[in-house]
Specification:
Blueprint: H1 5-10, H2 16-40, H3 48-70, H4 76-79, H5 94-122, H6 129-132, H7 141-154
Helix pairs in contact: 2-3, 3-7
Length: about 160
């Protein structure tokens, strides 16, 4: 628990409702970017690079908006937990926190797979299958590497 009074003074708390609204905002920004790119270049919604760029730009936009609201005077390193509020001795805990965050994210992803499969059985969506299939078509080595990097790094 952080007990630094300076940080407590400048950093408002993020409620569950606030987190849900930020998530909704991120989804809307992503939908806007994908829609805009589709209007500029037809077929962009089935392009993996465009989807990855839209995800990255949308996430970056929401991250900076959240940073402006919740940590207006903090550095980007502090907001990303590359630096900590508690001083130099707690910096050794940063790799542990990042490792735990990655493990929790991977665990939640693995728990999400059966839920998604169950939902797909109950509510099949075959009309969008022809839009999604070309995204994962990687016939070259560079395409496969790009697919792995985008699916493993950018999308999560």
């Amino acid at each position: 628990m952080n007990t630094d009074p300076e940080i407590e003074r400048i950093a408002p708390r993020l409620s569950i409702l606030g987190a849900a609204l930020w998530t909704l905002g991120a989804s809307l920004v992503l939908a806007f970017i994908v829609g805009f790119s589709e209007s500029v270049r037809p077929g962009a919604k089935s392009d993996l690079v465009t989807l990855a760029a839209a995800q990255f730009i949308g996430s970056l936009f929401v991250f900076f908006a959240m940073m402006r609201v919740y940590l207006p005077d903090a550095s980007i390193g502090t907001a990303l937990a590359l630096q900590t509020f508690a001083g130099p001795r707690s910096v050794a805990r940063v790799p542990v926190a990042w490792t735990l965050a990655i493990l929790v994210g991977a665990g939640l992803f693995l728990l999400n797979v059966p839920v998604q499969e169950a939902l797909a059985r109950v509510f099949p969506a075959k009309e969008h299958l022809e839009d999604i299939t070309p995204i994962f078509d990687a016939s070259t080595r560079a395409g496969r590497v790009t697919l792995i990097v985008v699916a493993g790094v950018v999308f999560p």
